[in-house]
Amino acid sequence: MVPVHRALIQGTDGNFWGTTYDGGSDNAGTVFKLNPAGTLTTVHSFQGADGSMPNALIQATDGNFYGTTHWGGTTECVYWAYCGTVFKITPGGALTTLYSFDFTHGAEPYAPLIEANNGKFYGTTFYGGEDSFCGCVEGCGTVFQITADGVLTTLYRFGSAHASNPTAPLIQATDGNLYGTALANEDCSGDIFEITRSGTFTELYCLGEVNSEWLEPGAGLFQSTNGIFYGTTYAEFGGDGSIYSESVGLGPFVIDVPSAGKAGQRVIILGTNLTGTTSVTFKGKGAKFKVVSGTEITASVPTGATTGTVQVVTPGGTLNSNVPFRVLP
């Protein structure tokens, strides 16, 4: 079973943006936006050569949307249709195919991209990565980096030694490294891994068998504000699955909701042990705030604030936001 990653996101224009797996003018999927009143606009219909079966979007710091398509592009893969693409689409609907996968550099991305704090994008492919089979069906998959200009670098090619066939999006943790999950290999039912932005791969944990059921991490990881990773598995053969945690020693932090806004906008800050907070700043600019609970603060983006880290001073120490807060004009 392969999970589907096609959640809506809210753009900085206030609309909800998403994709459909098929439909559109050529039945290859669409990009759409939906305003809060419920009016839907089809922004782009895929035609095959520019992609087919799109995954979820992200909105990058440049204001454009970026995504992957499961199939389509310009290169035909071994036993299936075309290998998939990475694309960019402007809020006005102008689509650019940044890269068409070619099997050697990966094939069939099942997950959306992430934008790291270096401004580059990272993702995974389910298949490909090798010119020949590597113990997996049609290749074991890859981790890749791609720039906004479409320059792709393959960071890691999965093989039977370190799990295979990743399906879930990566996350960038507070240490700057990327973390993810992959499916079974010869010894594990699934794998939790870390990879640096330069491509150094580390297997963190090999999932195994519980109550005679193989636990496979179809979904990705989530880093809680306590620094610990959490995730879920499903069990093959009718089992019940599990929820797990994985600690790699990372400290607590805060999350801004939303992570972009204008001066004066109300922002929710989530964290742990926030009671007694004495200061909230947006890149050093003091903000008016209210402690709602031990896990929530509300604050107003101060006039004159610029894009940067949100910092919260508590009795237990200083907490920084996991991503920069982006101040909009």
What does this structure look like?
By secondary structure, the chain is an all-beta fold. The protein folds into two domains: 9-246, 7 Propeller (Methylamine Dehydrogenase, Chain H); 255-327, Immunoglobulin-like. 0% of the residues lie in helices and 41% in strands.
For the sheet with most strands, the description reads: 5 strands, antiparallel
CATH superfamily of the largest domain: YVTN repeat-like/Quinoprotein amine dehydrogenase
Kindly name the structural category: mainly beta
Overall 3D shape: globular
Helix percent band: under 10%
> Poorly predicted ranges (pLDDT <50, ≥5 residues)?
none
What is the domain tally? 2
N-to-C span: 44 Å
Tell me which CATH architecture of the largest domain applies here.
Answer: 7 Propeller
CATH topology term of the largest domain: Methylamine Dehydrogenase, Chain H
Report the sheet-strand fraction.
35-45%
Rg, alpha carbons: 21 Å
Q: Let me know the number of strands.
A: 32
CATH class of the largest domain: Mainly Beta
Count of individual helical segments: 0
User: How confident is the prediction overall: mean pLDDT?
Assistant: 89
